[in-house]
Specification:
The protein contains 8 helices and 6 strands. By secondary structure, it is an alpha/beta fold. Helix 1 crosses helix 2 and helix 3 crosses helix 4.
Length: 220
């Protein structure tokens, strides 16, 4: 059976002009994770990323930590949904909460409620429909499940949450609950064969222990 290591990107730059750039903490997280994966004997037989800069930078750090080189395949199914555009669509004709894109608590509470509305097709003219989002995530899963050996993939919380929910045959509302639990640089493991695809590990952080929790454990 093959193993897919589906990793959420390292800490990006929440509240900055360009979110899609790893913070200094994010670079440290990705390098530390690569070292931990190497200690576990994980190989880079195939690699996938989404098209976001934070995906590429996270993979570069992981590879540096592993002492490995690989050319990743870029798959759009691993891209995050456009959460800013989705929030803007919901509040296009209504007042948005104050500091929606700058305050973490406000942002993620509102994002949760917005995603639940999006799943019910209650957000007018979203950047993509919920059905389109889930279909492209499934396309990515199928592409990765065709690979043999160890597959390392870097994506974002929304796409990962959907892949987890689908693997568990969970209802749609579980996607955002799984997403909002996801740590930066967390590893989700799946084992697969031509006929089966199983969740084997959730939200793992093999690079974090009591000595570095205060500096490396982040959620946004």
């Amino acid at each position: 059976m093959g193993t897919l290591y589906l990793i959420r990107h390292a800490q990006a730059s929440f509240g900055a002009a360009d979110y899609d750039v790893l913070s200094d903490t994010g670079h440290a997280q990705s390098h530390a994770l690569g070292k931990a994966l190497a200690r576990q004997g994980v190989r880079a037989d195939a690699m996938f990323i989404g098209a976001q800069r934070r995906h590429r930078e996270t993979l570069e750090g992981i590879l540096a930590g592993m002492g490995a080189q690989a050319q990743p395949q870029v798959h759009p199914g691993l891209n995050e949904f456009d959460f800013k555009a989705l929030l803007d669509a919901r509040f296009r004709n209504a007042s948005a909460p104050d500091n929606l894109h700058g305050d973490r608590k406000t942002h993620f509470r509102t994002l949760r409620d917005t995603v639940l509305a999006w799943q019910r097709d209650e957000v007018p003219d979203p950047p993509e429909t919920w059905a389109q989002f889930t279909a492209r995530v499934e396309d990515a899963r199928r592409a990765m499940a065709q690979q043999d050996g160890d597959v390392i993939a870097v994506s974002s919380g929304g796409a990962i949450g959907q892949m987890l929910a689908a693997a568990l045959a969970a209802p749609p509302e579980q996607q955002i609950r799984l997403q909002l639990q996801m740590k930066n640089c967390a590893v989700n493991r799946f084992v697969h064969s031509p006929r089966n695809f199983y969740l084997h590990g959730f939200n793992e952080t093999p690079h974090i222990d009591a000595s570095n929790t205060d500096t490396l454990l982040t959620y946004s």
